[in-house]
Design brief:
Blueprint (H helix, E strand, L loop, with lengths): L9 H4 L4 H12 L7 E8 L25 E7 L1 E11 L4 E8 L1 E4 L5 E3 L15 E11 L24 E9 L11 E3 L4 E10 L6 E11 L2 E15 L7 E5 L3 H7 L4 H14 L3 E3 L11 H5 L35 H18 L7 E2 L9 H12 L10 E3 L5 H4 L7 E5 L5 H9 L3 E5 L16 H12 L4 E4 L26 E4 L5 E3 L6 E2 L15 E4 H21 L3 H11 L19 H17 L2
Helix pairs in contact: 10-11, 11-12, 11-13, 12-13
Length: 609
Amino acid sequence: MKNNTNHYSPFLKRSISFCFMMFLVIFHTAQDLNADISTVWVCNDGEKIEQDDFDNPNKAGNSAWNGSKAGIFGGRNEVLAFQIIIEAGSRGINSLTVTLSGLKQKEGSSQIVYTPPAKDPTLYTGRPIQIYTVNYMNVTKRTYADWFYPLDESHPAVPSDPVGLKPVQLIPENATTGRGGFPLQVKPSMNQAIWIEIYTGKNLPAGLYEGIIEINADGEKRSIPLELELFDFTLPDTNSIDAMIYYESGQPDMYHGTNQTNVLDPAYHRFAHRNRVEFVTAYNESTAPQYIDLFNGNAFTEKNGYEGPCMATGNNIIPRTFYGPGRDFETQEEAWAHSDAWMNWLDKNLPGKITFLYMPDEPSRESFPVIREYAKRIHGNPGPGRKLPIFVTKGYSAELDSPDQTIDIWCSFYGHYSIAQALIERSHGDDMWIYNGMRPYGGAMLIDTPAIDARVNMWVCYKHGINVYFNWHSCHWQHNSHIPSGYDRVQNIWIEPITFRNKHGNYANGDGCLVYPGQDVLHPDQDRCIEGPCSTITMANLRRGLQDHLYLTLAKKLGHEEAVNAALSKIVPKALSDVGKNEGVHFPQDGNAFEKERYKLAKIIAQTK
């Protein structure tokens, strides 16, 4: 986004004087426009800097940049991210590389050391520093689907800048040259963002860490100092909110050109784990044993290529069915037998995990009798199967729930979520989750919405006690049955920003695509030759929001409820059913405001002994 609330972190206050800072900005801006590099600057991870945006106000300063030095902060066991924006001059850049060899403790001997990635960059062991290049997509039409934001362009909840050359994917540095791998080419008078992530291990001592970012553009070199302020606390391996994202392994198989699910699935699950989310699908007592390492944590150990948040911690959500109840529960006899078998297997092998029976998706009234029959069979089971929860993707409906509390888990869309009803459901042992996102009630996780839309949704969940967030798809690269005639279901996903269409004329940019395929045998000219997924700015901001949720949880647990409430009042003063349909969003539109509140929380957490 091109908006900025001008909230700067205390890092900026420790910097050089304002006059010297402005001198440096003017100096860089005034460089010879025929030079390969016009300007270099840094920003936080909560911004989408368009490829042709040379006037972004964050250039002068932001939470990660004081005009001459990059600065980030966080606790241990956290993934921190920032962006380097390189503006090409009128000749462009033919060969651009960016390196960060590591960071050293300023008053100590500890280091965070860079190691190059493998062909599968999700082999994270020994690789705390990740370097990505940002890929841009040309969005020519704003999303046209009122379950993301209003159709009326004059509505205040519509993003202020929905079209343009949008930053979308994060491509590992070792991808194919010309497809995001180093060295890069940058067109004349265009931006190129480099995205850097640093994992702060659990054993790092607190303090300041320093490093140098080296930029080489056709032999012209620039250096940017980097400072990491590592606070004296550690984020837990257990998440304070579960984030489940549907994963359909057949789509990676198709685009990567392999049916070796046992090869691709571990890479995609390692990636999800590093981002503190779970890629979920359906299981039963026959298939679940094949994936038990995902749930007992063995899949996320150094032995299996994993290092990062939640090491040796298993996934928490293991659905019995997904996107419908399937065929195993159509009669009372079948329902009792299958629910008993499933709950017995879970109790023996994975006690305490979250499971459910997924009812018809987003059901209309015509489906209510069918859902009630399924619930009646399960709830009437005299055996252990009666504990299998009935899950429905719908805002609360008394007609569906009556007369005997038919639904155990309501998963409501943002625009239909009732804060008051959620409290009622929880009071009698049921629950209400939330899925996807919709402005103005929360953020909408799309290419054409601000980066922080994904982040703010986790603040919304914290404020209103929502235990599970659900996003409908991670890799919706093949159009589903809603696609109108005349469109190819197999998308050229790296070229086409619109990833959802239906027969009613609705469409959405980037919907259901939190990751992109590192290989593409269906469109060879788009093959990155990466044996695993490529991330997105949306996914990175969802992760940042999940880590923010942990900050809020830790601060409250340590007795700082007043500070937590103050932060919530700044970021999410109103959300969900507190917001009127004709209102705009009530959360900040840039990352600086979020970083200001996160810094306050980091300080009080670290200071509490």
